[in-house]
Amino acid sequence: MKLRLTVSFQTDQGERFFGEGPYRLLMGVEELHSLRASAQSMGMAYTKAFRMIKNAEAGLGFPLLERSVGGKGGGGSTLTARGKELLRRYGAYRISLDHMVEQLYQECFSGFLPAASSDYRGKEPGENHSH
Amino acid sequence: MKLRLTVSFQTDQGERFFGEGPYRLLMGVEELHSLRASAQSMGMAYTKAFRMIKNAEAGLGFPLLERSVGGKGGGGSTLTARGKELLRRYGAYRISLDHMVEQLYQECFSGFLPAASSDYRGKEPGENHSH
DNA sequence: TATCGTTATACTTATAAAAGCATAACGAAG
DNA sequence: CTTCGTTATGCTTTTATAAGTATAACGATA
Prior knowledge:
The structure is a homodimer. The first copy, chain A, is of the alpha+beta class. Helix content of chain A is about 50%, strand content about 20%. Chain A contains four helices and five strands, in the order E-E-H-H-H-E-E-H-E. Chain A has a three-stranded mixed beta sheet with strand order 2-1-5. A two-stranded antiparallel sheet of chain A has the order 3-4. Chain A is elongated, with a radius of gyration of 17 Å. The two termini of chain A are about 20 Å apart. The relative contact order of chain A is 0.23. Mean pLDDT of chain A is about 90; it is low at about 125-130. The interface of A and B includes residues 104, 108 and 116 of A.
């Protein structure tokens, strides 16, 4: 048995704009200096990656990527300073959360339900659809 | 800005079988002594409610409802002892979790992102679909 | 033994979300 | 001034999930 935890940021109107999906995608951009390359590296369509980032930037209110288009190599994207800081903070957040969820489960269900390990997934776009 | 948190129990194969949806549905059964009545009271189709419970029982490995079919009034459903205990424990779990998520957000994002209130939703079936 | 409202279940339809396709714009380098 | 691989977007297609329809079985009561 597993615990499925998902946390995401959403607007007051309920529109989700940031979570595990964008997080992983941005981690890839930081490493590969390219949104397309990052999307490909995780089997995601570029169009979807693009929409995710655009959506996230709209929700957050500040740019995450510094893009350059054209030129040698076609261009690329790198993280803005705030984008990098967001990744650092979000990474810490989700790890702490993961621990808390698991520990609290033990406190609340120990002896009543089987032990469970937390299976963190942002459930934001970009995950494998295996059905 | 809001935090959207969802926790659900799933099998090792990733099939979700319990969360906020079944929880609320069962709370209604406890009050109304009828699965159909509980489903209706929250605008859910009975067929869906039935599937949810069946699914939950399969995943948990023990029965949640004691059903009686036929007879005066057509029958009805009440919670089993374990079913009741599950509700009590799950209720405590999600409330603690809600607090934790909010507090941790403050610790991790204070001064970087706007304050956010936790918007707990099981995202299990049974929610309104307004799009 | 006819009635009534429930549980139980298969099958179909509708809706939302994800994924994919096609194409334009860009600009440094050769 | 051509090429290349990227960013940028609209539009279509596919898939997954939710919701709905229809119908059977049940059994205490009158």
